[in-house]
Amino acid sequence: MKSLFLLAMLMALAITLSAATSFEIEEAKSVIGGTRRFLSQSQRRVALTLTCDKNPKICLVKGSAGPDCCSNKCVNFSTDRLNCGRCGKKCSFGKICCKGKCVNPNTNEKHCGKCGNKCNAKGSCVFGMCSYA
Ligand SMILES: *[C@@H]1O[C@H](CO)[C@@H](O)[C@H](O)[C@H]1NC(C)=O
Question: Which residue in 110, 107, 98 sits closest to 127, CA to CA?
């Protein structure tokens, strides 16, 4: 009886030790592989275990698609055409999302052709190009 208990203890200890060791080896490998790899591995681990509806902070991790969370996906409200400014706000056909607002890049003087492309005071946006004619 006593030896059975001892055996069980030993096995538990062995399992704990081997788990710790393989984890340490993995960490050591990633350190050898450089910080970049270490970061991406830990990010992957975070992404596997956490979801943004429960842990919105995971969307702030470097390499995330954006800082905001919609239906469990990280998005960027500033530029996401399907979640422009807020979750589920879709930009209609032909429009793009700039700074959280749907705009028509063919005619918008502040976002002419693309986000942030401003036509100056004399120009107007025509077919997505600033025109000074
Ligand atoms: C979201 O998009 C804006 C505009 O492109 C960009 O400046 C910002 O860095 C993005 N945020 C993230 C966390 O990717």
Answer: 107
